[in-house]
């Protein structure tokens, strides 16, 4: 059982690495560098610069992509054998897969799902697939087309189960009548939830469907249980690193130096505050001042806030104060926390420096 | 089919996307293209002598070969999995009939009563729900999906109405409505929005089919949401008087499972009955036997592949389903990679259909084509090769059949103690065989004959030489077999070796010896009884003689199997032309079967020069160079950090490295925890600063997409978290 020994060794290496890393983090003096130490450029400039990053190793990457072309016939062969193809490895595989689909899969209909997007309506996908299949069947046997056109009209009103049953149907005895689904980032944010994965798995097991998918996240296989892997997706894995930039896939990720950065949030907070009434601004100031003068407390209790605001004639009743607070909460200027004695208390989710900057800005 | 790869212009992979496609990038889904109208190439292959026609169809031929071979293996394994459960299924059906009688004996209510949703006034026992608990002896529910599907089909074939539910139907999210809807959908064959049992009741009544029960099968009860399952059972028990429902649930762990999951008031409603299925190891052996040994599909696997699959089954996955899947991948890869593999399909079909008309022509054509493949220049040579090839292939097939038969003989010998999978792996080992073959050259062990135990040189060889080997153990078992099982074993050998006449004869010879011995012994027994009273001493000596003579037969049987092993157990990899049907590429199989993104993606980043083969970065060993891809630099740097990476520090080190372009030469970029304030030339600093920051951001985003780091939390806004430690 040589394999066994190998994996034990690996496991040991893994845990050792983990604890070494933990130690390194814990024992070494806590790094005190702050993001504010870097002189961060303006977000717009950053985005513009990000769009114009000079690519490295262009030639090598191109050669690599070309070398994968020799795998295309093999991929087609495996698709026809009934497997799904799962591509992994570092680098965007979008261009590669689309090139494969448009050069080697011309005899099959191909539907592309952009899994990197935030939300994908899987039912719409199923309806589209059912329509394609319906068209294909119609051209295959013209005689029974009346029957099918009736089916088609009602696709929109059909349930998921019915749609899946239609795609799984034994409409033709021909083995080779299938639609390919190309899923970019089947582990992407829009597809990551269990329910969608279950539907995708059921879809993949349909007789008229083959799936070609890419994953980027190292833990993506955790999305699937054994039933999905062995009986539904039926993956054949391919390691195809491309080293191509994740341009489209990374589109919706916030830039780390632009996001969460104090100047930036203070600025956006200031913009929001300036659009509010002077009274609302003053209520916010009360809360900010309290937070600055009591840095160790969890926040300001509602009663205290109300008392101070009333004293300064900022609000006349609890109702008006609540209206202001709701407004703040909606814009994420203020958040609530349960105090240790059970009362709700309010705080501004900004650091002291950012808060000071903000106060300066709105009092100008 | 047009499979040729067209040459591409470099711009095809251009990452700068045209506006039209960038719009598509933002659509959740779109249709890339519809199927082009193609000439239907569904035709039988009529091989004409002109080779140009065949060449383009080469892959198509192999595809058809794969399909015929695989469909055979698949259906064989499916059949055997069903057969293994036949007796359990029969028991279940018997119990179903009994339960149904019990339910109907309470008397069926009239239509109006039955379809009303309020309860009937009956005594408590009539609310009992007959429940079959099927112990699967297997935590891997994947293997049992098929079992329960087959059970459903089996019961349907007996006229029952069956609905198969799974744990996904019992989710807390969909609630009781979800599983009732699924139930109605399966019984009524229409989907309804309303989930009401009275619909089911009136359907059952309208069917007018009082003679068959409704069976609800839940394949994995432990994975169901307990509260939903409880409500479901209570609902069913309320209705059981009106609709004769019988519940069957799969239990993976122990019989305690229902008690652990369901509350007592629900348990009270159940009237359970236990059924047991075969264990995974038994199923594995049965599948192996059916798929690779019983039927000669011409597809087989090499020793390394077999060992890999065995270890994968025993140590990693443990499901028969994954074994079959692995076999399918191996099969597909074989037919894709091996140019001559299409002949395996032809040979197999020849076997299946007998030598008739078209098939025969097909094989001849294939052979011709194959010989053309191997020697394209001369015609006369091709013909020669053609005939020799035909002989060779038939010989290959014969030898392979012999091998399978002997393996099965060994399995029969060691049954219930030694796993077929183990014997199979050992019997495939070409190394064990080769050491023997070289011995054979010296003249030892030639010919066939039953060697006597007094001839130790014979027994020293072969697989039997491996002390503690499974084959050796199996042979040893033959020596110790009691008489009754020995004659049974010989009977099974007789059946298995029908095609190998040399052995078949010997087995028959042995059988007659056993019969003779039996006859003698029974006679002696009679005399024994007579003598018994007169002389105790003599009786004892008689018995000893008996034991000795039966020992002699055992020894003969052992030598016979020993001989069979020596003469016929030639591992497939040692046969000429084995490449046609034998898949040996274990690395390829492993890669396709088990993707390892966690390790691979990290390796991609750390050792990217092994993939890109660029001249600029290969000289570095773990020292980040400015020419490396940004993400690789960042990930290499991240290796020096603990589980938290301080963003500013990371940024500074990154900046230091990529700004080294101008001061190249000195290797100042030693790994450093703290950034060195090196002097980099600040030409157009603002612009480069922005671009450095942008590159940093991009690299962080890419690492985030691969899941290797986690974004800063509120608590630690300046740190990202490392997720992967070690490969």
From TrEMBL, chain A:
Annotated ranges, domain Origin recognition complex subunit 2 winged-helix: 294-353
InterPro entries (alphabetical): ORC2, RecA-like_ORC2, WHD_ORC2
Origin recognition complex subunit 2 RecA-like domain ranges (all copies): 60-240
Pfam families reported in the protein's UniProt record: RecA-like_ORC2, WHD_ORC2
Nucleus listed as a keyword: yes
This protein's UniProt keywords: DNA replication, Nucleus
Protein family: Belongs to the ORC2 family.
SUBUNIT field: Component of the origin recognition complex (ORC).
Function description: Component of the origin recognition complex (ORC) that binds origins of replication. DNA-binding is ATP-dependent. ORC is required to assemble the pre-replication complex necessary to initiate DNA replication.
Protein name: Origin recognition complex subunit 2
Organism: Ziziphus jujuba
Recorded name of the encoding gene: LOC107420877
Automatic annotation (TrEMBL), chain B:
Localization: Nucleus
InterPro entries in alphabetical order: ORC3 (IPR020795), ORC3_N (IPR045667), ORC_WH_C (IPR040855)
Keyword DNA-binding: yes
Domain Origin recognition complex subunit 3 winged helix C-terminal as annotated: residue spans: 598-725
Gene Ontology biological process: DNA replication initiation
Name of one Pfam family that matches: WHD_ORC
Region Disordered, annotated ranges: 1-24
Residue ranges with Polar residues bias: 1-20
CDD domains in alphabetical order: Orc3
Keyword field: DNA replication, DNA-binding, Nucleus
Keyword presence, Metal-binding: no
GO molecular function terms attached to this record: DNA replication origin binding
Origin recognition complex subunit 3 N-terminal domain segment(s): 29-343
GO cellular component terms, semicolon-separated: DNA replication preinitiation complex; nuclear origin of replication recognition complex; nuclear pre-replicative complex
Family classification: Belongs to the ORC3 family.
Protein name in the entry: Origin of replication complex subunit 3 isoform X1
Organism this protein belongs to: Ziziphus jujuba (Chinese jujube)
